Every structure is written in structure tokens, then in C-alpha cells.
Amino acid sequence: MEEQQEHLLKSETLIDDSAPSLLSRRPDSRHLHRRLHFFLLYVVNALLVVSLMVLLVRREKCVDPSLKTYMPANDAVEWEETVFIDMPGEVSPYLGTPSDEIDELWDQLYTGTGFLLFDPEETRRMVEPTVAIPTSGGDSGLYGMEVFHELHCLNVLRKSLYPERYPHYQLWNENCTRNPNMERHLAHCIDRLRQGVQCAGNTGTHFYFWSEEAGHWKMDMRSRHTCRNFERLQEWARARDYTGFDPFVRSHSTADM
Ligand SMILES: *[C@@H]1O[C@H](CO)[C@@H](O)[C@H](O)[C@H]1NC(C)=O
């Protein structure tokens, strides 16, 4: 009974935080200990709440660090879940012996001149100077975008495999020597694609399945990825496609702006 009362007293002390009650009681180191305990609990709780809030706010602002390098198209970057196509599960429409349909699909990947005109504001934020094209709001800058160059490179490599259909992309001469211009172009493309692939560092994961037909495990490369929405980037670029560029006309550069 006495024990119970003491317990009640203790809890009362804990609830009643006012100074008089503290003074009215005999100083008890156990009580002070408890108060300190509670004080620490409040502090820890407050710190946790603040950290949680900071995390939530930062989460909202969380961006892909690869967008830190300013490029105007960064604003157009959106993400989507994608499963890569792999035979025999599914045959890519871009794959196979060339036809008009396949050529059309490839051409559609980078429709336009390949020259992009960035508005004066975007151009001012670019580090590298380029051709200045006078527009209403000031000088716009002429630029290109890597994803379309990479696709162009892939298309050139694809065409070089079928010289009977694309004689302009033929690597081998009739006398079994290589066409040095084509060799340079293809080698350049291979090395640009190498850099692009390494830069992306795709962590997509392949897996294996048992094939009764083959009698061994086979690799399934239908890996899952979070990709940048390519159509969105295409739209962005198509809106900036510039047809008026003549590389042989000397004019001023954005370095003089
Ligand atoms: C092979 O053919 C190419 C293109 O027709 C020509 O430029 C080159 O000189 C030829 N090389 C030899 C060794 O005949």
C-alpha cells in the first residue's frame, strides 16, 4: 500500500512540472534523475522530429545528380519504368534485316536537322560558346544533343552491316581495303557509344532460366530499368529544331555576347 502511494507520488511529480511542487517536496535525487531522463527524451524526440522534417523536405527536392551539369533539356527529364526487349521473349521492331519500315523507325528516333536552337536565356547559362543566331529576345545558340548523336551513331553502325542496301556506309572497298573515311566515322561512333554506356553505368540486372529445349540455363536479358522518358526529350528537341544553319557562313559566336 505504501509502495503504491510512493509510486503515485512519483508519477505526480513527473506530471506536475511547476516549481512550487518541486520546492514543496524534499529534494530527491531519484526524482531529479527521472526529470533529467524525461528532459533527454524530449530532446531526442525533438531532434527526431526535426530530422524527419528535414528528410521529407529534402526528399521533395531530390534530383538525379547526373542533372547537376546544367543542360537546358534537364528540365524535360522525366522517368519511367521500362523492361528492355530481348529475344526470344520479344523481338525488337528495330532489329532485323533492313526494310523501309525499320529504316523509318530509326529515322524517327532523331527526326530533324540535329541542330538545336536554345533560347537566349538557356544560351547564356551554357559554359561552351557556339554559333549565335539572332532571335527576338537576343542571341540564341546553336547546339546538338548527345542522345540523338548516339542514336545517329548506332544507325550508322547498323547501316554499315548492310552495304548492299546502304552503299554510302560501306566500310570495305572492292579491293579489300577499308574506306578510311568510313573507318574513322565508325571508330568515332564506337568510342562515343563506349563513353555513353560507361557514363550511364546501367545497373539493370539479367537473370537465368532453364531451357528444356537447349538442356541448359539461358540468360534472360529482359531487365527492369528506370529510364528517362525518351519521347519527352524528343518533343523537347523537336520544338528547338533549327533548319536555317549554314555551316559555311561565317557569323559571330555566343562568346562575343
Ligand atoms: C582500293 O580501292 C579504293 C576505292 O576504290 C582506292 O581508293 C584505293 O586506292 C584502292 N587501293 C588499292 C591498294 O588498290
UniProtKB/TrEMBL annotation:
GO biological process: mycotoxin biosynthetic process
Top-level lineage group: Eukaryota
Pathway the protein takes part in: Mycotoxin biosynthesis
Keyword Transmembrane helix attached: yes
Alphabetical keyword list: Membrane, Transmembrane, Transmembrane helix
Transmembrane segments: 36-57
Alphabetical list of PANTHER family matching this protein: CYCLOCHLOROTINE BIOSYNTHESIS PROTEIN O, YALI0B05434P
UniProt record similarity statement: Belongs to the ustYa family.
Protein's name according to its UniProt entry: Tat pathway signal sequence
